[in-house]
């Protein structure tokens, strides 16, 4: 009986720790510090699409990489709801510059060890639902090496510009390439911010 209770005590302590939302956020942040985007991606609540996948996620997270090393950091719970938690991470770099990162967690339906909470990072703030890109009609275009012809939406009134409506795309830097007959290919880096919406 004592052995059983000891086992249950260890199981409960381990499961409670595994379901701790703050520890989950801490692990996510520490993966960011080491550039371990693969592990971070596994911790996100994400639905993949043409522009939402591991490669695009890791490229987006490069813009959040904290360079120069961390001296210390502190995690504070900003908001607690039934199915979500929002944390703010305040950090001080070795050069004494300060910064903050906000991480939102969503509670998942599945449980750890049957009864303990499980969490995923909500990254919707890093996704633009719709981004409109205008390109001359006589030019071919790719974005991040991907063909976007399926996203053709409308043309300008004068027929000179074709508009592509890109659905769900990460914020950050994206490489566009346009080419045409007897015209050298042109590469352009475009920055998409979380404030962009229906922008050309």
Question: Can you describe what's shown?
Answer:
The protein has 200 residues and is of the alpha+beta class. The chain has helices at residues 2-18, 21-34, 37-42, 54-62; strands at 70-81, 84-93, 98-107, 119-122, 127-136, 140-143, 146-147, 152-155, 161-170, 172-180, 183-192. It has a four-stranded antiparallel beta sheet with strand order 1-2-3-4, covered by helices on one side. Strand 6 and strand 7 form a beta hairpin. The longest helix has 17 residues, at 2-18. It is elongated. The protein starts with a helix and ends in an 8-residue tail after the last strand.
End-to-end gap = 69 Å
What's the total number of strands?
11
Strand content: 35-45%
Structural classification: alpha+beta
Give the SSE string.
Answer: HHHHEEEEEEEEEEE
As residue ranges, the low-confidence spans are 2-18
Overall geometry = elongated
Q: Tell me the number of helical segments per DSSP (H or I, 4 or more residues long).
A: 4
Radius of gyration over C-alpha positions, nearest whole angstrom:
22 Å
State the helical fraction.
10-25%
Order of strands, widest sheet: 1-2-3-4
Instruction: Outline the biggest β-sheet.
Output: 4 strands, antiparallel
């Amino acid at each position: 009986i004592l052995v059983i209770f000891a086992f249950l005590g260890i199981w409960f302590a381990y499961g409670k720790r595994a379901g701790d939302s703050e520890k989950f956020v801490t692990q996510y942040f520490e993966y960011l510090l080491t550039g371990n985007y693969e592990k971070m991606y596994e911790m996100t609540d994400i639905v993949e699409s043409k522009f939402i996948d591991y490669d695009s996620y890791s490229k987006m997270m490069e813009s959040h990489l904290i360079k120069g090393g961390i001296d210390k950091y502190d995690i504070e719970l900003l908001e607690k709801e039934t199915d979500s938690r929002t944390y703010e991470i305040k950090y001080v770099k070795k050069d004494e510059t300060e910064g903050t990162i906000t991480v939102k967690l969503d509670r998942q339906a599945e449980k750890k060890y049957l009864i303990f909470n499980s969490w995923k990072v909500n990254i919707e703030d890093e996704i633009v639902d719709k981004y409109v890109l205008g390109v001359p009609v006589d030019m071919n275009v790719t974005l991040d090496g991907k063909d976007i012809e399926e996203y053709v939406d409308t043309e300008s009134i004068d027929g000179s510009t074709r508009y592509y409506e890109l659905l769900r795309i990460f914020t950050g830097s994206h490489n566009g390439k346009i080419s045409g007959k007897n015209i050298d290919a042109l590469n352009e880096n475009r920055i998409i911010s979380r404030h962009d919406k229906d922008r050309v």
